[in-house]
Structure formats: C-alpha cells, structure tokens
Inverse folding.
C-alpha cells in the first residue's frame, strides 16, 4: 500500500517523513491490536533509513 503521513516526522540520525510525499507501507501484523488501531510500518526509503510505526489517524491511505 502507499500512504501519506498527516504530519512531518523526524528521527534523529535516521531521516524523516514528509507529509507532502507518499511512501510504501505494510500492515503491522506483528503488533498488538494492529487491526483495531490501524497500525502500519512505513518501509525504509530514501528519506528514512528505518521502518516507522504509525497508527490510524497519523496517515491516509493513497493506494491499497
């Protein structure tokens, strides 16, 4: 799926997510209450070198 974060996120030393860009993400099936809380992992990319966990309300799905 592709998502767009609703805010800019910055992680020291690892990079950032920009609310004006779209990113690939996967459902965080290994997290507790992942369905109820809408948890996803944003995959590592050119802007962010690590996965980032986001919850429902922190992103919008652009393409599923």
């Amino acid at each position: 799926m592709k998502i767009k974060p609703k805010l800019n996120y910055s992680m020291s030393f690892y990079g950032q997510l920009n609310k004006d860009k779209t990113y690939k993400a996967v459902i965080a099936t290994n997290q507790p209450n992942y369905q109820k809380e809408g948890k996803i992992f944003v995959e590592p990319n050119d802007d962010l070198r690590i996965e980032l966990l986001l919850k429902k309300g922190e992103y919008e799905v652009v393409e599923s």
In short: The longest helix spans residues 34-37. Residues 44 and 50 are 5 Å apart (CA to CA). The first strand starts at residue 2 and ends at 5. The mean pLDDT is 97.
